[in-house]
Amino acid sequence: MNKFYITTTLPYVNSDPHIGFAKEIINADIIARYKRQRGFDVFFNTGTDEHGKKIKQKADETGVDVIDYCNKYSQKFSDLHEVLNLSFNSFTRTTNSDHAKSVASFWSKCLENGDIYKKKYKVKYCVGCEMEKTDSELEKGKCPLHPSLQVENIEEENYFFKFSNYQEKLLQLYKENPDFVRPKGKLNEINSFIKKGLNDFSISRLREKMPWGITVPGDDSQVIYVWFDALVNYISCLGWPDNLEKFNDFWPGMQVCGKDNLRQQTAMWPAMLMSAGLPVPKGVLVFGFLTINGQKISKSSGNTINPVELADKYHPDVIRYFLAKEISTFEDGDFSYEKLEKLYSSDLVNGLGNLVARVSNLIEKSGLRVNLKEVNYKEDIPLLEEDNDFFQEIDKKMNDYKINEVLSSIVSKIKETDEFLSLKAPWKMTEENEKQGVLQKSSENILDIALALYPFIPGAADKIISKFKDEKIKKGEILFPRLIN
Fold first, then answer.
1. Hey, what's the torsion of the CAs at 256, 289, 325, 89, to 10 degrees?
2. Model pTM greater than 0.85?
Protein backbone atom coordinates (compact mmCIF):
# COMPACT_ATOMS: atom_id res chain seq x y z
CA MET A 1 0.00 0.00 0.00
CA ASN A 2 1.24 3.50 -0.83
CA LYS A 3 2.32 5.55 2.19
CA PHE A 4 1.66 9.24 2.82
CA TYR A 5 2.96 11.41 5.65
CA ILE A 6 1.78 14.88 6.60
CA THR A 7 2.51 17.03 9.64
CA THR A 8 1.51 20.39 11.01
CA THR A 9 3.90 22.62 12.89
CA LEU A 10 3.86 22.16 16.67
CA PRO A 11 2.14 25.12 18.35
CA TYR A 12 3.58 26.58 21.54
CA VAL A 13 1.69 25.81 24.73
CA ASN A 14 1.99 29.36 26.03
CA SER A 15 -1.76 29.90 25.57
CA ASP A 16 -5.01 28.30 24.42
CA PRO A 17 -5.40 27.08 20.82
CA HIS A 18 -6.50 29.81 18.41
CA ILE A 19 -8.39 29.74 15.15
CA GLY A 20 -5.27 30.46 13.09
CA PHE A 21 -3.84 27.09 14.06
CA ALA A 22 -7.30 25.55 13.54
CA LYS A 23 -7.05 26.58 9.90
CA GLU A 24 -3.64 24.92 9.57
CA ILE A 25 -4.64 21.63 11.16
CA ILE A 26 -8.02 21.44 9.38
CA ASN A 27 -6.31 21.89 6.01
CA ALA A 28 -3.82 19.17 6.93
CA ASP A 29 -6.72 16.93 8.02
CA ILE A 30 -8.51 17.47 4.72
CA ILE A 31 -5.39 16.39 2.82
CA ALA A 32 -4.91 13.37 5.10
CA ARG A 33 -8.54 12.26 4.75
CA TYR A 34 -8.41 12.67 0.97
CA LYS A 35 -5.28 10.55 0.71
CA ARG A 36 -6.97 7.83 2.79
CA GLN A 37 -9.92 7.96 0.40
CA ARG A 38 -7.50 7.29 -2.44
CA GLY A 39 -6.29 4.18 -0.62
CA PHE A 40 -3.10 5.53 0.99
CA ASP A 41 -1.82 4.44 4.38
CA VAL A 42 -1.60 7.87 6.03
CA PHE A 43 0.51 9.00 8.98
CA PHE A 44 -0.75 12.39 10.22
CA ASN A 45 1.31 14.09 12.91
CA THR A 46 0.73 17.11 15.11
CA GLY A 47 1.55 17.91 18.74
CA THR A 48 2.90 20.64 21.00
CA ASP A 49 6.18 22.54 21.38
CA GLU A 50 6.97 22.84 25.08
CA HIS A 51 10.53 24.14 25.49
CA GLY A 52 10.38 27.84 24.59
CA LYS A 53 11.38 30.65 26.93
CA LYS A 54 7.94 32.24 26.66
CA ILE A 55 6.40 29.03 28.05
CA LYS A 56 8.49 29.46 31.20
CA GLN A 57 7.36 33.08 31.42
CA LYS A 58 3.70 32.07 31.21
CA ALA A 59 4.12 29.32 33.80
CA ASP A 60 5.80 31.79 36.18
CA GLU A 61 2.98 34.30 35.62
CA THR A 62 0.38 31.72 36.62
CA GLY A 63 2.45 30.42 39.54
CA VAL A 64 2.58 26.77 38.47
CA ASP A 65 5.40 24.35 37.72
CA VAL A 66 6.39 24.54 34.06
CA ILE A 67 5.73 20.82 33.41
CA ASP A 68 2.27 21.07 34.99
CA TYR A 69 1.64 24.10 32.81
CA CYS A 70 2.74 22.17 29.70
CA ASN A 71 0.54 19.20 30.61
CA LYS A 72 -2.52 21.40 30.96
CA TYR A 73 -2.12 23.29 27.70
CA SER A 74 -0.90 20.34 25.64
CA GLN A 75 -4.13 18.55 26.53
CA LYS A 76 -6.11 21.48 25.12
CA PHE A 77 -4.43 20.99 21.74
CA SER A 78 -4.88 17.22 21.90
CA ASP A 79 -8.61 17.79 22.54
CA LEU A 80 -8.92 19.40 19.09
CA HIS A 81 -9.08 15.82 17.78
CA GLU A 82 -12.68 15.62 18.99
CA VAL A 83 -13.55 19.32 18.90
CA LEU A 84 -12.80 19.71 15.18
CA ASN A 85 -13.36 16.06 14.15
CA LEU A 86 -9.70 15.60 13.19
CA SER A 87 -8.03 12.35 12.15
CA PHE A 88 -4.41 12.78 13.28
CA ASN A 89 -2.90 9.50 14.49
CA SER A 90 0.24 10.93 16.08
CA PHE A 91 0.52 13.61 18.76
CA THR A 92 4.12 14.54 19.58
CA ARG A 93 5.00 16.40 22.74
CA THR A 94 8.55 17.74 22.78
CA THR A 95 8.78 16.90 26.49
CA ASN A 96 8.30 13.18 25.73
CA SER A 97 11.33 10.98 26.52
CA ASP A 98 11.23 9.30 23.07
CA HIS A 99 11.41 12.68 21.39
CA ALA A 100 14.29 13.76 23.62
CA LYS A 101 16.21 10.63 22.66
CA SER A 102 15.69 11.35 18.95
CA VAL A 103 16.81 14.97 19.36
CA ALA A 104 20.03 13.87 21.11
CA SER A 105 20.76 11.41 18.29
CA PHE A 106 20.08 14.07 15.67
CA TRP A 107 22.39 16.52 17.47
CA SER A 108 25.15 13.91 17.46
CA LYS A 109 24.75 13.37 13.70
CA CYS A 110 25.15 17.10 13.00
CA LEU A 111 28.09 17.30 15.43
CA GLU A 112 29.84 14.38 13.69
CA ASN A 113 29.41 16.22 10.39
CA GLY A 114 31.22 19.25 11.80
CA ASP A 115 28.20 21.56 11.77
CA ILE A 116 28.00 22.32 15.50
CA TYR A 117 30.42 24.55 17.38
CA LYS A 118 30.45 26.71 20.52
CA LYS A 119 31.03 30.47 20.76
CA LYS A 120 30.31 33.58 22.79
CA TYR A 121 27.98 36.05 21.15
CA LYS A 122 25.69 39.03 21.54
CA VAL A 123 22.34 39.12 19.80
CA LYS A 124 18.92 40.77 19.80
CA TYR A 125 16.23 38.22 20.53
CA CYS A 126 12.43 38.14 20.14
CA VAL A 127 10.82 35.89 22.73
CA GLY A 128 7.60 35.82 20.68
CA CYS A 129 9.38 34.28 17.68
CA GLU A 130 11.94 32.47 19.85
CA MET A 131 14.47 33.70 17.28
CA GLU A 132 17.44 36.03 16.97
CA LYS A 133 16.80 39.25 15.03
CA THR A 134 19.04 41.52 13.00
CA ASP A 135 18.54 45.29 13.02
CA SER A 136 17.15 45.09 9.47
CA GLU A 137 14.40 42.74 10.66
CA LEU A 138 13.20 45.14 13.36
CA GLU A 139 10.85 48.08 12.96
CA LYS A 140 11.51 50.91 15.40
CA GLY A 141 13.40 48.43 17.56
CA LYS A 142 10.48 45.96 17.72
CA CYS A 143 9.78 42.66 16.00
CA PRO A 144 7.01 43.37 13.44
CA LEU A 145 5.36 40.03 14.31
CA HIS A 146 5.32 40.80 18.05
CA PRO A 147 5.29 44.60 18.38
CA SER A 148 3.98 44.48 21.96
CA LEU A 149 7.05 42.57 23.21
CA GLN A 150 10.42 44.03 24.11
CA VAL A 151 13.34 42.73 22.08
CA GLU A 152 15.92 41.26 24.47
CA ASN A 153 19.69 41.61 24.29
CA ILE A 154 21.37 38.27 24.92
CA GLU A 155 25.04 37.80 25.70
CA GLU A 156 26.24 34.29 26.51
CA GLU A 157 28.14 31.26 25.25
CA ASN A 158 26.08 28.73 23.29
CA TYR A 159 26.37 26.12 20.58
CA PHE A 160 25.74 27.14 16.97
CA PHE A 161 24.66 25.34 13.82
CA LYS A 162 26.65 26.12 10.66
CA PHE A 163 23.70 27.31 8.63
CA SER A 164 26.17 29.21 6.42
CA ASN A 165 27.46 25.87 5.07
CA TYR A 166 24.13 25.22 3.36
CA GLN A 167 23.48 28.30 1.21
CA GLU A 168 24.36 26.70 -2.12
CA LYS A 169 22.80 23.35 -1.21
CA LEU A 170 19.49 25.02 -0.34
CA LEU A 171 19.50 27.09 -3.52
CA GLN A 172 20.14 23.90 -5.49
CA LEU A 173 17.28 22.16 -3.64
CA TYR A 174 14.84 24.90 -4.66
CA LYS A 175 16.11 24.92 -8.24
CA GLU A 176 15.76 21.17 -8.67
CA ASN A 177 12.40 21.02 -6.87
CA PRO A 178 10.29 24.00 -8.02
CA ASP A 179 7.29 22.69 -6.03
CA PHE A 180 9.27 22.19 -2.81
CA VAL A 181 7.64 25.33 -1.36
CA ARG A 182 4.09 26.27 -2.29
CA PRO A 183 2.81 28.78 -3.20
CA LYS A 184 5.38 29.96 -5.72
CA GLY A 185 5.61 33.38 -4.10
CA LYS A 186 6.88 31.86 -0.86
CA LEU A 187 9.50 29.84 -2.75
CA ASN A 188 10.69 33.08 -4.34
CA GLU A 189 10.75 34.74 -0.91
CA ILE A 190 12.89 32.08 0.75
CA ASN A 191 15.10 31.87 -2.32
CA SER A 192 15.80 35.60 -2.06
CA PHE A 193 16.50 35.29 1.66
CA ILE A 194 19.06 32.52 1.09
CA LYS A 195 20.81 34.42 -1.71
CA LYS A 196 21.57 37.29 0.69
CA GLY A 197 23.77 34.94 2.71
CA LEU A 198 23.15 32.84 5.80
CA ASN A 199 24.22 33.42 9.40
CA ASP A 200 24.86 30.50 11.72
CA PHE A 201 22.17 30.27 14.40
CA SER A 202 22.26 29.42 18.08
CA ILE A 203 20.99 25.96 18.97
CA SER A 204 21.42 25.86 22.75
CA ARG A 205 20.72 27.84 25.91
CA LEU A 206 22.16 27.83 29.41
CA ARG A 207 20.39 25.20 31.51
CA GLU A 208 19.60 27.78 34.20
CA LYS A 209 17.35 29.59 31.68
CA MET A 210 15.40 26.50 30.57
CA PRO A 211 16.03 23.73 33.13
CA TRP A 212 13.37 21.36 31.74
CA GLY A 213 14.96 21.40 28.25
CA ILE A 214 16.74 18.51 26.52
CA THR A 215 20.36 18.24 27.64
CA VAL A 216 23.08 18.88 25.06
CA PRO A 217 24.93 15.56 24.62
CA GLY A 218 28.17 15.81 26.57
CA ASP A 219 27.44 19.20 28.16
CA ASP A 220 25.08 19.26 31.15
CA SER A 221 25.38 23.06 31.41
CA GLN A 222 23.41 23.58 28.19
CA VAL A 223 20.02 22.53 26.85
CA ILE A 224 18.99 22.27 23.20
CA TYR A 225 17.33 25.37 21.78
CA VAL A 226 13.66 25.20 20.94
CA TRP A 227 13.94 25.44 17.14
CA PHE A 228 16.54 22.70 16.82
CA ASP A 229 14.59 20.56 19.28
CA ALA A 230 11.07 21.09 17.96
CA LEU A 231 11.81 20.54 14.27
CA VAL A 232 13.12 17.04 14.99
CA ASN A 233 9.56 16.03 15.97
CA TYR A 234 8.81 15.49 12.28
CA ILE A 235 10.97 12.36 12.38
CA SER A 236 10.92 11.48 16.08
CA CYS A 237 7.20 10.73 15.68
CA LEU A 238 8.18 8.05 13.15
CA GLY A 239 10.49 6.39 15.65
CA TRP A 240 13.77 7.64 14.19
CA PRO A 241 16.47 6.45 14.72
CA ASP A 242 15.28 3.22 16.42
CA ASN A 243 12.43 2.28 14.07
CA LEU A 244 14.03 2.75 10.66
CA GLU A 245 11.46 0.54 8.94
CA LYS A 246 8.63 2.90 9.85
CA PHE A 247 10.80 5.93 9.17
CA ASN A 248 11.74 4.70 5.70
CA ASP A 249 8.11 3.80 4.95
CA PHE A 250 6.79 7.31 5.55
CA TRP A 251 9.67 9.78 5.32
CA PRO A 252 10.08 12.09 3.47
CA GLY A 253 6.62 13.61 3.80
CA MET A 254 4.66 16.83 3.45
CA GLN A 255 4.77 19.64 5.99
CA VAL A 256 2.28 22.48 6.43
CA CYS A 257 2.93 25.76 8.21
CA GLY A 258 1.93 29.40 8.45
CA LYS A 259 3.98 31.98 6.58
CA ASP A 260 5.56 33.18 9.85
CA ASN A 261 7.33 29.79 9.93
CA LEU A 262 8.71 30.05 6.39
CA ARG A 263 12.40 30.31 7.29
CA GLN A 264 12.36 27.52 9.87
CA GLN A 265 10.39 24.99 7.82
CA THR A 266 11.84 25.59 4.35
CA ALA A 267 15.47 26.46 5.11
CA MET A 268 16.64 25.72 8.67
CA TRP A 269 15.05 22.26 8.87
CA PRO A 270 16.19 21.07 5.39
CA ALA A 271 19.73 22.25 6.21
CA MET A 272 19.66 20.34 9.51
CA LEU A 273 18.46 17.19 7.71
CA MET A 274 21.24 17.51 5.14
CA SER A 275 23.75 17.81 7.98
CA ALA A 276 22.37 14.65 9.63
CA GLY A 277 22.51 12.79 6.30
CA LEU A 278 18.73 12.39 6.06
CA PRO A 279 16.29 13.14 3.21
CA VAL A 280 14.64 16.57 3.12
CA PRO A 281 10.81 16.80 3.13
CA LYS A 282 8.86 16.20 -0.08
CA GLY A 283 7.52 19.70 0.23
CA VAL A 284 6.22 22.47 2.46
CA LEU A 285 2.78 24.05 2.10
CA VAL A 286 2.81 27.61 3.42
CA PHE A 287 -0.65 28.85 4.38
CA GLY A 288 -1.56 32.52 4.70
CA PHE A 289 -2.49 34.31 7.91
CA LEU A 290 -6.00 34.36 9.28
CA THR A 291 -7.26 37.72 10.52
CA ILE A 292 -10.32 38.45 12.66
CA ASN A 293 -12.50 41.30 11.46
CA GLY A 294 -9.56 42.58 9.47
CA GLN A 295 -7.07 42.52 12.37
CA LYS A 296 -4.11 40.12 12.70
CA ILE A 297 -4.58 37.37 15.26
CA SER A 298 -2.58 38.26 18.35
CA LYS A 299 -2.55 36.39 21.64
CA SER A 300 -0.99 39.36 23.41
CA SER A 301 -3.68 41.82 22.23
CA GLY A 302 -6.52 39.37 22.80
CA ASN A 303 -7.59 39.43 19.14
CA THR A 304 -8.13 35.70 18.82
CA ILE A 305 -10.85 33.06 18.91
CA ASN A 306 -10.54 29.74 20.69
CA PRO A 307 -11.78 26.93 18.39
CA VAL A 308 -13.01 25.01 21.44
CA GLU A 309 -15.32 27.87 22.32
CA LEU A 310 -16.31 28.22 18.66
CA ALA A 311 -17.27 24.54 18.57
CA ASP A 312 -19.57 25.08 21.54
CA LYS A 313 -21.62 27.28 19.25
CA TYR A 314 -21.14 25.77 15.79
CA HIS A 315 -21.00 22.19 14.54
CA PRO A 316 -17.43 21.06 13.60
CA ASP A 317 -18.54 20.63 9.97
CA VAL A 318 -19.55 24.30 9.86
CA ILE A 319 -16.16 25.45 11.18
CA ARG A 320 -14.27 23.10 8.87
CA TYR A 321 -16.28 24.16 5.83
CA PHE A 322 -15.86 27.87 6.48
CA LEU A 323 -12.10 27.72 7.03
CA ALA A 324 -11.61 25.53 3.94
CA LYS A 325 -13.97 27.36 1.58
CA GLU A 326 -13.94 31.02 2.60
CA ILE A 327 -10.22 31.25 3.37
CA SER A 328 -8.00 30.79 0.32
CA THR A 329 -5.51 27.99 0.93
CA PHE A 330 -2.33 30.00 0.43
CA GLU A 331 -3.49 33.58 0.92
CA ASP A 332 -4.50 35.63 3.94
CA GLY A 333 -8.17 35.54 4.84
CA ASP A 334 -10.56 37.06 7.36
CA PHE A 335 -12.81 35.37 9.90
CA SER A 336 -16.06 36.86 11.12
CA TYR A 337 -19.16 35.31 12.63
CA GLU A 338 -21.27 37.08 10.02
CA LYS A 339 -19.33 35.51 7.15
CA LEU A 340 -19.45 32.09 8.76
CA GLU A 341 -23.22 32.13 9.25
CA LYS A 342 -23.81 33.51 5.76
CA LEU A 343 -21.74 30.77 4.14
CA TYR A 344 -23.36 28.13 6.33
CA SER A 345 -26.81 29.21 5.24
CA SER A 346 -26.03 29.60 1.53
CA ASP A 347 -23.85 26.56 0.87
CA LEU A 348 -24.83 23.99 3.49
CA VAL A 349 -28.41 24.64 4.52
CA ASN A 350 -29.95 26.15 1.37
CA GLY A 351 -27.55 24.47 -1.04
CA LEU A 352 -26.52 20.95 -0.05
CA GLY A 353 -29.09 20.38 2.70
CA ASN A 354 -32.02 21.52 0.56
CA LEU A 355 -30.93 19.37 -2.40
CA VAL A 356 -30.61 16.23 -0.26
CA ALA A 357 -34.01 16.86 1.33
CA ARG A 358 -35.72 17.46 -2.05
CA VAL A 359 -34.41 14.31 -3.69
CA SER A 360 -34.86 11.98 -0.70
CA ASN A 361 -38.43 13.20 -0.17
CA LEU A 362 -39.26 12.77 -3.87
CA ILE A 363 -37.94 9.22 -3.85
CA GLU A 364 -39.90 8.28 -0.76
CA LYS A 365 -43.13 9.87 -1.99
CA SER A 366 -42.86 8.29 -5.43
CA GLY A 367 -42.20 4.79 -4.07
CA LEU A 368 -39.61 4.33 -6.84
CA ARG A 369 -36.25 2.61 -6.37
CA VAL A 370 -32.86 4.05 -7.22
CA ASN A 371 -30.06 1.61 -7.88
CA LEU A 372 -26.91 3.27 -6.58
CA LYS A 373 -23.36 1.99 -6.60
CA GLU A 374 -22.07 0.24 -3.51
CA VAL A 375 -19.72 2.52 -1.58
CA ASN A 376 -16.49 0.76 -0.66
CA TYR A 377 -15.10 1.33 2.81
CA LYS A 378 -11.69 0.81 4.35
CA GLU A 379 -12.57 0.70 8.03
CA ASP A 380 -14.90 3.74 8.31
CA ILE A 381 -13.41 5.64 5.36
CA PRO A 382 -15.39 5.73 2.10
CA LEU A 383 -12.89 5.05 -0.68
CA LEU A 384 -12.77 7.35 -3.69
CA GLU A 385 -11.88 5.17 -6.66
CA GLU A 386 -14.36 6.43 -9.27
CA ASP A 387 -12.91 7.47 -12.62
CA ASN A 388 -15.25 10.19 -13.87
CA ASP A 389 -14.78 13.82 -14.90
CA PHE A 390 -15.99 15.22 -11.57
CA PHE A 391 -13.57 13.15 -9.49
CA GLN A 392 -10.74 13.80 -11.94
CA GLU A 393 -11.27 17.55 -11.48
CA ILE A 394 -11.27 17.10 -7.69
CA ASP A 395 -8.12 14.98 -7.84
CA LYS A 396 -6.22 17.52 -9.95
CA LYS A 397 -7.01 20.35 -7.56
CA MET A 398 -6.27 18.28 -4.45
CA ASN A 399 -2.92 17.24 -5.89
CA ASP A 400 -2.17 20.95 -6.31
CA TYR A 401 -3.43 21.50 -2.72
CA LYS A 402 -6.00 24.07 -3.90
CA ILE A 403 -8.38 23.18 -1.11
CA ASN A 404 -10.78 26.11 -1.43
CA GLU A 405 -11.03 25.57 -5.21
CA VAL A 406 -12.09 21.96 -4.66
CA LEU A 407 -15.06 23.18 -2.62
CA SER A 408 -15.94 25.68 -5.35
CA SER A 409 -16.12 22.76 -7.80
CA ILE A 410 -18.33 20.79 -5.42
CA VAL A 411 -20.67 23.77 -4.94
CA SER A 412 -20.95 24.03 -8.73
CA LYS A 413 -21.95 20.36 -8.84
CA ILE A 414 -24.62 20.98 -6.19
CA LYS A 415 -26.05 23.90 -8.19
CA GLU A 416 -25.91 21.91 -11.42
CA THR A 417 -27.86 19.05 -9.82
CA ASP A 418 -30.39 21.43 -8.30
CA GLU A 419 -30.93 23.12 -11.67
CA PHE A 420 -31.29 19.73 -13.39
CA LEU A 421 -33.94 18.73 -10.87
CA SER A 422 -35.86 21.99 -11.29
CA LEU A 423 -35.67 21.77 -15.07
CA LYS A 424 -36.92 18.19 -15.26
CA ALA A 425 -39.55 18.69 -12.50
CA PRO A 426 -40.07 14.99 -11.74
CA TRP A 427 -42.95 15.84 -9.39
CA LYS A 428 -44.95 16.75 -12.52
CA MET A 429 -44.09 13.60 -14.45
CA THR A 430 -46.63 10.84 -14.96
CA GLU A 431 -44.32 8.38 -16.73
CA GLU A 432 -42.60 6.33 -14.01
CA ASN A 433 -39.54 5.34 -16.07
CA GLU A 434 -38.86 8.98 -16.92
CA LYS A 435 -39.32 10.05 -13.30
CA GLN A 436 -37.15 7.20 -12.08
CA GLY A 437 -34.38 8.27 -14.49
CA VAL A 438 -34.33 11.82 -13.12
CA LEU A 439 -34.28 10.64 -9.50
CA GLN A 440 -31.59 8.08 -10.34
CA LYS A 441 -29.33 10.73 -11.92
CA SER A 442 -29.95 13.21 -9.07
CA SER A 443 -29.18 10.56 -6.46
CA GLU A 444 -25.98 9.50 -8.23
CA ASN A 445 -24.84 13.13 -8.27
CA ILE A 446 -25.61 13.55 -4.57
CA LEU A 447 -23.65 10.42 -3.69
CA ASP A 448 -20.68 11.69 -5.72
CA ILE A 449 -20.95 15.07 -3.97
CA ALA A 450 -20.98 13.38 -0.56
CA LEU A 451 -17.90 11.30 -1.41
CA ALA A 452 -16.08 14.43 -2.58
CA LEU A 453 -17.13 16.31 0.58
CA TYR A 454 -16.02 13.58 2.98
CA PRO A 455 -12.54 15.04 3.67
CA PHE A 456 -14.06 18.48 4.33
CA ILE A 457 -17.21 17.79 6.34
CA PRO A 458 -16.99 14.11 7.30
CA GLY A 459 -19.97 14.21 9.67
CA ALA A 460 -22.47 15.45 7.10
CA ALA A 461 -20.91 13.40 4.31
CA ASP A 462 -21.39 10.19 6.33
CA LYS A 463 -25.07 11.06 6.83
CA ILE A 464 -25.60 11.60 3.10
CA ILE A 465 -23.78 8.41 2.13
CA SER A 466 -25.86 6.43 4.64
CA LYS A 467 -29.01 8.04 3.26
CA PHE A 468 -28.31 7.40 -0.42
CA LYS A 469 -26.47 4.07 -0.54
CA ASP A 470 -28.16 0.68 -0.54
CA GLU A 471 -31.54 2.36 -1.17
CA LYS A 472 -31.67 3.50 2.47
CA ILE A 473 -33.66 6.64 1.77
CA LYS A 474 -34.88 8.25 4.97
CA LYS A 475 -37.34 11.10 5.26
CA GLY A 476 -37.33 13.90 7.78
CA GLU A 477 -33.71 13.75 8.95
CA ILE A 478 -32.23 17.23 9.23
CA LEU A 479 -28.78 17.19 7.68
CA PHE A 480 -27.45 20.29 9.42
CA PRO A 481 -29.30 20.36 12.74
CA ARG A 482 -27.09 22.82 14.59
CA LEU A 483 -26.08 26.33 13.63
CA ILE A 484 -26.27 27.82 17.11
CA ASN A 485 -26.71 25.86 20.33
1. 30
2. yes
